[in-house]
Amino acid sequence: MNTGKTTLAFALTLLLLAGCKADDEYSVWPCRFAYDNMVHQDATLAAAMSNASRGVFCIISESTRSGKKYLNFQNSNGDSSEQPESAEEQQANFILGINNGIIVGFQTLNTDGANGGFVGYDIQCPNCARRENNTVNPNYRVSIDDKGIATCSRCHKTYDLNNGGLIRNGQEGDTGLEKYVATTSGPFGVVSVFRR
């Protein structure tokens, strides 16, 4: 038996298993969002896109009025704003999670990695969505506070946005918030959130 080939095969197997584990970290729920805040200069969103303001998170949702689409921003500092979508952005057909809402920001814990702790979460409580078997049109939104805690309006479970969206008061079988791949190039740069 060739120990060099065996060692290489073992190392490749470990790498593949680690890759599967990393993929399991991210949601399979739909999400597709890329936004250039250099164009819009939205301060509410910028607060959550700044590495210097770790622990500030922003809810992003979309609304339509008189046939025009808007992006709505509400951050954990209590600020809110609205920006009309450009023609290009409207054509991009953003998908903001499973029911029109994602959360972005720099967490205060788990700051290692390529994104330096910048995270994106679905706004829906995953435990209510699964318990009700409703990932098509759920309405189990979480709200966020200034301490980086997200709370489900239905089951009142809480999630730590600063620590990977982990559940704080769950029961056996409960999971943390659904995470998306998220990147930012700075407060007045580009933010993108998508499923892996």
What would you note in describing this structure?
The longest helix is centred in the first third of the chain and has 22 residues, at 3-24. 34% of the residues are buried. By secondary structure, this protein is of the alpha+beta class. It is globular, with a radius of gyration of 18 Å. It has five helices and twelve strands.
> Biggest β-sheet, characterized?
8 strands, antiparallel
What is the H/E string? HEHHEEEHEEHEEEEEE
Q: Average the pLDDT over all residues and give the rounded result.
A: 87
The span between the termini is: 39 Å
Radius of gyration based on Cα positions: 18 Å
Offer a quick outline of the entry.
This protein is α+β, with helices and mostly antiparallel strands.
Layout of helices and strands, plus pairs?
Elements (H helix, E strand, L loop, with lengths): L2 H22 L7 E5 H4 L2 H6 L8 E9 L2 E8 L4 E5 L2 H6 L9 E5 L11 E5 L3 H6 L10 E3 L4 E4 L5 E3 L5 E2 L11 E6 L5 E5 L2
Antiparallel strand pairs: 1-12, 2-3, 2-5, 3-4, 5-6, 6-11, 7-8, 8-9, 9-10, 11-12
List keywords for this structure.
single chain; 196 residues; alpha+beta; 8-stranded antiparallel β-sheet; 4-stranded antiparallel β-sheet
